[in-house]
Amino acid sequence: MAGEDWMKETSLKPTRSSAFGGLLGLLGLLGFSVIAGILVAALFAPMLAVTSKATVNALNVFDRLPDYVTLGHQSQRTVLYGLRAAQQVPFAQIYDQNRQEVEWDAVSDFAKDALVAAEDVRFYQHGGVDLAGIARATVNNLSGKKLQGASSIEQQLVKQLAIQEAVATITDKVKLNAAKAAAQATTLDRKLREAKLAVGLEKRYGKHQILLAYLNIAGFGGNTYGIEAAAQQYYSTTAKALTLAQAASLIAIVQQPNLRAPAAPDNWERNQSRRDAILRTMLSELMISRQQFDEAIAVPVNASTVKLSAATNGCSYASAAKPFCDYVINSVKDLTSLGATPADRKAAWERGGYSVYTTIDLDQQAVAEDDLAARTPATENRFSLGSAVSTVQVGTGRIITMAQNKAFDDTGEADPAVSTAINFNTDKRYGGSSGFPTGSTYKLFTLVNWLQNGHGLQEYVDANIRSYRSFPSRCDPGGLYTIARGYAPKNDSGVSQGQMNVLAATKGSVNAAFVNMASKLDLCDIRDVATSMGVHNADDSELAHDPGTILGTNTPSPLTMANAYATVAGGGTLCQPIAVDRIVGPDGKELPGQAQSCSRVISPEVAAAAAFDLQGPLQPGGTGASANPRDGTALLGKTGTAEALHSYMVAASSQTSTAVWIGNITGFQNLRRISIGGTLASNLRTAVMKPILASLNASAVYGAGHAFPEPPPALLRGSTIRMPNVVGQSVSAAQRLVERIGLAFAQGDVVSSALPAGTVVSSDPVAGSAIARGRTVTVTVSSGAAARKTDPPDKHPGGGDHPGKG
Questions:
Q1: Is the CB of residue 637 less than 8 Å from the CB of residue 618?
Q2: How far, in Å, CA of 389 to CA of 640, rounded?
Q3: 77-99 as b/e, with b when 16 or more CB fall inside 10 Å?
Q4: Measured between alpha carbons, how far is 435 from 538 in angstroms, rounded to an integer?
Q5: How many other CB atoms sit within 10 Å of the CB of residue 121?
Q6: Which one of 545, 560, 591 terminates a domain?
Q7: Is 607 helix (H, G, I), strand (E, B) or coil?
Q8: Is 801 domain-assigned?
Q9: pLDDT tens digits, residue range 101-152?
Q10: Whole-structure pTM over 0.70, yes or no?
Q11: Buried b (16+ CB within 10 A) or exposed e, 222-232
Q12: Where in the sequence does UniProt note compositional bias of the Basic and acidic residues kind (predicted)?
């Protein structure tokens, strides 16, 4: 620092003549301590004659040390923001060290003066190393009085910077502890290094910068660092608003935080004793008036003055969206703006100081949280009930809500009956969950592949319960997936349902119909469609492709399923889920969040046809109709049940897509055999979904959106078939012909006809009709007994028939 600037800063502070100002001359007479001799020699050589061999060696070490250290930013809080009432508001803070760095004007002058009074009363007079203080400490120590140190604020700051650098760069605990010990060792080399770097600080920075750095870096007990966090933690105020008594009380902590931090009542007396000593020094150094001193020293340190703030670090203490907060932390490895590698990003995050503006909508989050709490209470004690809701924005992948019924808590201190450290909404590597079977919501991928193969929604499929021994499967040996004992899934109704078109099969979620559709496709293709739409098992295991997966035995997360349906609602474009819109660094620099990553994975035509089909389940008579808020919003969706242990529903507008899961966290409670709040547990999915959809559709941010596009006629009707003429053919010949061209065959009534018995009299549809593939053709069959016609009898005058008249 320039001499004139230094004088300007020092002139801001009242000074007294030092009682030790003449001790520098005394140093030569005493020979003082070894360290004092070396420091004087090092700082003033070659002006002083140095003859001691030990001193010369030490000077050589001194010369090899760096000239200065930089202050930089220390580990501090990172704050997460979400949207509430169209404003970005904080909802969580994360830190390795509870620190919030503040500027000079944001700190009370009482705290600044208290630090000088407590740690370095000649701070504004010396140049980084207090030689008079060294002399004083040397005289006292050699005379047998109480041992004294002589570290200036600059020297203490150098030590703290070394410790913080070790914390920031060393992950091995043994090495970290060794580095901390080295930074605090009472060795000659360490003292030399500390002294030279302290002088270097003086050359590079002003007194105010150094003092502020100390106030921001100092430890105040536990995980609390810096004057701002300490003010909040112990007195529920800010560094700017600290009173004289509070400021001195906080500065009293720094040298013995375990014994003096006022968080513990046992420390109150020790804190007050040290605080009062600081106040007396402030008075004697003319930093405060007698009246200020009297008022401050009369304030006790006890329960009436100490106002502790509740813990705030981590997602367990977030004010809202706790599972989502945890998801953000687990997504740090993906935040490329924080560093080139996952290790760099982790290190940057641990240093903290970021403002992270997330995608979460706290208003919609509150709706989801309240809804789950009311309908799927965490306090349910008859079985381990879990529930989760994930909503994403169509066309962007931005996560809007992420809620669950169990309170998120990763501290291990909450009641495990009503809390969990697992985020049910997402994957294992992002929240610990292994996912849940999706049931019939997985039928989406068979539907999409059906359409991709040119089939139509009006095509008819067999919904009768039957056994299948094999399915086309190109990735299996021989191109088949074989089942030795056969695969015969039941319909939810328990009975066969004949022939029906795909629209009806989807609306009623008919299992046998979708298995029949899959038998005409390829199991590996269906799996690949799911993969292309972003589906993966939550535990990262490979997606299975056995016949059971058609009905939802794979285990993706609710977030994954919400995003898959968003792909259909978005016209075939998949957007990877993202949680962070933007970041502001500790230096105020704007950084990008997670870039939107969207790509077309299914054609707009197939997406339109799938959307058309999936509107059926939310219409009257559909399995999810009771979830529809009937507000005029076009909605698509699907319900699903997995072995009655898990219940699912996914629903989407053109703006948002939401997945609801309700089921067993552990255990095997049949949801169809237990009621919660008067509703069968298996039906809670629609009860939970309805208010969430109503709120999203009414939102000014997302809105009701628009109608889904009409499906192409070709995908509506599929490949049509011209009905052949089977009249006059035998029943068996007609059946062979009809089934060979892709139609189903049924024999209807037997009627009298002139045609030979056992031959077809008529068909429905009639010959020449263009009909959807798979539709059932019903034929009537001749009995062979034609109706006889007779002439009316001749009339005789006497009446009666005339015999023999033909």
A1: yes
A2: 15
A3: bbbbbbbbeeeeeebbbbbbbbb
A4: 5
A5: 19
A6: 545
A7: helix
A8: yes
A9: 899 999 999 999 999 999 999 999 888 887 766 666 555 555 555 444 558 8
A10: yes
A11: eebbbbbbbbb
A12: 788-806
